[in-house]
Write a structure and sequence with these properties.
alpha/beta, 3-stranded antiparallel β-sheet, about 20% helix
Length: about 160
Amino acid sequence: MYNLSMIAAVGDNWELGYKNQLLCHLPADLKYFKQVTSGAPVIMGDNTWISLPKKPLPSRRNIVVTLEAVTFPDCETVHSIEAAMELVKEDPEAFVMGGATMYRLFLPYAEKIYLTRIKSSFTADVYFPVLSDDEWFCDRTVYRPRDEKNEYDLYFQTFIRKNR
């Protein structure tokens, strides 16, 4: 049993981002991300680390996975997904927070996925893996309508892995 979860915001076609940026700015999703991940380790790839406007993310243990022979300041740098999983094995829950390659590599080990579904399609160059109904079920959905600060309707969904 793994303690790994994933957290992401995706468009209607599983879009994640474009040119190493989020699809759009949604304060409601950023608040949700902070609420869910605060106090827990977050695991990310080096491109995600580079894209963060504020480093490290406060109130979280920041772990960066890179294949490059580098280390990044103010975080723990590892060079394999196995090394990242070893660092968080004692934590009750750790979150993979991007990017697309990290989601693809960690998906077989994840038990839970927190997805913000943005009700729109976007131009994208990276995508979240499409979840199979055979492997995942949606345990919770909370609708949040668009407003003056959030341009799109949102669905906060939690998926749980079946049969592990």
